[in-house]
Write a structure and sequence with these properties.
Order of helices and strands: HHEEHEEEH
Largest sheet: 3 strands, antiparallel
Number of helices: 4
Radius of gyration: 15 Å
CATH architecture: Alpha-Beta Complex
Protein name: Fibrinogen C-terminal domain-containing protein
Strand content: 15-25%
CATH class: Alpha Beta
InterPro entries: Fibrinogen-like_C, Fibrinogen_a/b/g_C_1, Fibrinogen_a/b/g_C_dom, Fibrinogen_C-term_domain
Amino acid sequence: MTRGGGGWTLISNAFTVLDFNETAEKTLEEYAVGFGSAEEADLWFGLDLISLYSNYQMMSLRLNLYRCAHNGVEAKWTDCTYKQFAVSGKTDEYRVTIPEVCRGTEIDYYDGWARWDLSKTGPKFLAVDNDNSTSHCSSTFRNTGWWYDT
Protein backbone atom coordinates (compact mmCIF):
# COMPACT_ATOMS: atom_id res chain seq x y z
CA MET A 1 0.00 0.00 0.00
CA THR A 2 1.36 3.36 -0.98
CA ARG A 3 -0.94 5.85 0.75
CA GLY A 4 0.55 7.97 3.50
CA GLY A 5 4.12 7.13 2.53
CA GLY A 6 3.59 3.41 2.01
CA GLY A 7 4.76 0.43 4.02
CA TRP A 8 1.28 -0.59 5.18
CA THR A 9 -0.05 -4.13 5.58
CA LEU A 10 -3.66 -4.53 4.48
CA ILE A 11 -5.62 -6.22 7.28
CA SER A 12 -9.11 -5.52 5.96
CA ASN A 13 -10.83 -4.12 2.90
CA ALA A 14 -14.13 -2.49 3.76
CA PHE A 15 -15.66 -2.41 0.30
CA THR A 16 -15.17 -6.10 -0.39
CA VAL A 17 -14.73 -8.48 2.52
CA LEU A 18 -16.36 -6.18 5.02
CA ASP A 19 -19.47 -5.81 2.91
CA PHE A 20 -22.33 -6.59 5.28
CA ASN A 21 -23.34 -9.78 3.45
CA GLU A 22 -19.79 -11.13 3.62
CA THR A 23 -19.26 -10.55 7.34
CA ALA A 24 -22.74 -10.96 8.78
CA GLU A 25 -22.87 -13.59 11.47
CA LYS A 26 -19.21 -14.61 11.34
CA THR A 27 -18.02 -16.06 14.63
CA LEU A 28 -15.12 -14.95 16.78
CA GLU A 29 -13.19 -18.02 15.64
CA GLU A 30 -13.65 -17.04 11.99
CA TYR A 31 -12.33 -13.57 12.78
CA ALA A 32 -9.46 -15.10 14.77
CA VAL A 33 -8.16 -17.20 11.86
CA GLY A 34 -9.07 -14.76 9.08
CA PHE A 35 -10.85 -15.21 5.78
CA GLY A 36 -10.94 -13.97 2.21
CA SER A 37 -8.42 -13.80 -0.62
CA ALA A 38 -5.00 -12.20 -0.16
CA GLU A 39 -4.31 -12.41 -3.92
CA GLU A 40 -7.25 -10.09 -4.57
CA ALA A 41 -6.65 -7.89 -1.49
CA ASP A 42 -10.09 -9.06 -0.40
CA LEU A 43 -9.56 -10.28 3.13
CA TRP A 44 -9.74 -10.07 6.88
CA PHE A 45 -6.15 -10.74 8.03
CA GLY A 46 -7.15 -12.56 11.23
CA LEU A 47 -7.01 -11.50 14.87
CA ASP A 48 -4.33 -14.07 15.69
CA LEU A 49 -1.97 -12.66 13.04
CA ILE A 50 -2.81 -9.06 13.89
CA SER A 51 -2.01 -9.81 17.53
CA LEU A 52 1.23 -11.58 16.61
CA TYR A 53 2.48 -8.80 14.36
CA SER A 54 1.37 -5.89 16.54
CA ASN A 55 3.05 -7.36 19.62
CA TYR A 56 6.26 -8.28 17.78
CA GLN A 57 7.11 -4.67 16.95
CA MET A 58 5.48 -1.28 17.31
CA MET A 59 2.84 -0.76 14.65
CA SER A 60 0.67 2.11 13.49
CA LEU A 61 -2.89 1.78 12.25
CA ARG A 62 -4.17 3.77 9.29
CA LEU A 63 -7.88 3.84 8.57
CA ASN A 64 -9.18 5.03 5.23
CA LEU A 65 -12.77 5.94 6.00
CA TYR A 66 -15.57 6.57 3.53
CA ARG A 67 -18.11 9.05 4.81
CA CYS A 68 -21.49 8.75 3.09
CA ALA A 69 -23.27 11.88 1.91
CA HIS A 70 -25.58 13.31 4.57
CA ASN A 71 -27.42 16.57 5.32
CA GLY A 72 -26.21 18.19 2.11
CA VAL A 73 -22.56 17.25 2.70
CA GLU A 74 -20.99 15.32 -0.18
CA ALA A 75 -19.56 11.86 0.33
CA LYS A 76 -15.81 11.85 0.89
CA TRP A 77 -12.80 9.80 1.88
CA THR A 78 -10.95 10.68 5.06
CA ASP A 79 -8.00 9.08 6.81
CA CYS A 80 -7.02 8.59 10.40
CA THR A 81 -3.63 7.27 11.56
CA TYR A 82 -2.97 6.04 15.07
CA LYS A 83 0.75 6.22 15.90
CA GLN A 84 0.59 3.06 18.03
CA PHE A 85 -1.71 0.07 17.69
CA ALA A 86 -1.67 -3.38 19.27
CA VAL A 87 -4.12 -6.23 19.74
CA SER A 88 -3.82 -8.67 22.63
CA GLY A 89 -4.18 -12.42 22.17
CA LYS A 90 -7.05 -14.84 22.51
CA THR A 91 -6.74 -15.20 26.30
CA ASP A 92 -7.30 -11.44 26.67
CA GLU A 93 -10.17 -11.50 24.14
CA TYR A 94 -8.23 -9.59 21.46
CA ARG A 95 -8.42 -6.26 23.26
CA VAL A 96 -7.11 -3.28 21.32
CA THR A 97 -4.59 -0.74 22.59
CA ILE A 98 -4.44 2.69 20.98
CA PRO A 99 -2.80 5.17 23.39
CA GLU A 100 -3.17 8.36 21.31
CA VAL A 101 -5.82 10.05 19.16
CA CYS A 102 -5.56 9.75 15.42
CA ARG A 103 -4.08 12.29 13.06
CA GLY A 104 -5.27 12.92 9.52
CA THR A 105 -8.15 14.35 7.56
CA GLU A 106 -10.86 12.76 9.72
CA ILE A 107 -12.20 15.88 11.40
CA ASP A 108 -15.99 15.57 11.36
CA TYR A 109 -15.97 13.00 14.14
CA TYR A 110 -12.66 14.12 15.71
CA ASP A 111 -11.49 10.57 16.15
CA GLY A 112 -12.72 8.27 13.46
CA TRP A 113 -12.70 5.03 15.35
CA ALA A 114 -11.53 4.87 18.98
CA ARG A 115 -14.23 6.14 21.30
CA TRP A 116 -12.94 4.86 24.62
CA ASP A 117 -10.52 6.21 27.22
CA LEU A 118 -7.24 5.90 25.33
CA SER A 119 -5.19 5.91 28.54
CA LYS A 120 -6.55 2.38 29.17
CA THR A 121 -6.61 -0.84 27.21
CA GLY A 122 -9.52 -0.71 24.82
CA PRO A 123 -12.49 -3.03 24.46
CA LYS A 124 -12.40 -6.66 23.44
CA PHE A 125 -13.27 -7.69 19.91
CA LEU A 126 -16.95 -8.57 19.69
CA ALA A 127 -18.53 -10.97 17.23
CA VAL A 128 -22.06 -12.33 17.09
CA ASP A 129 -21.21 -15.31 19.32
CA ASN A 130 -19.34 -13.49 22.13
CA ASP A 131 -21.36 -10.27 22.47
CA ASN A 132 -21.98 -9.97 26.20
CA SER A 133 -21.82 -6.17 26.11
CA THR A 134 -24.57 -4.06 27.62
CA SER A 135 -25.62 -2.74 24.20
CA HIS A 136 -25.54 -6.08 22.32
CA CYS A 137 -24.78 -4.10 19.14
CA SER A 138 -22.72 -6.84 17.54
CA SER A 139 -25.55 -9.34 17.91
CA THR A 140 -28.20 -6.81 16.92
CA PHE A 141 -26.42 -5.61 13.77
CA ARG A 142 -25.00 -9.08 12.98
CA ASN A 143 -21.50 -7.69 12.59
CA THR A 144 -18.33 -7.23 14.59
CA GLY A 145 -15.66 -4.90 15.92
CA TRP A 146 -13.98 -3.23 18.86
CA TRP A 147 -16.28 -0.20 18.79
CA TYR A 148 -19.41 -2.18 19.71
CA ASP A 149 -18.35 -2.35 23.36
CA THR A 150 -17.87 1.40 23.85
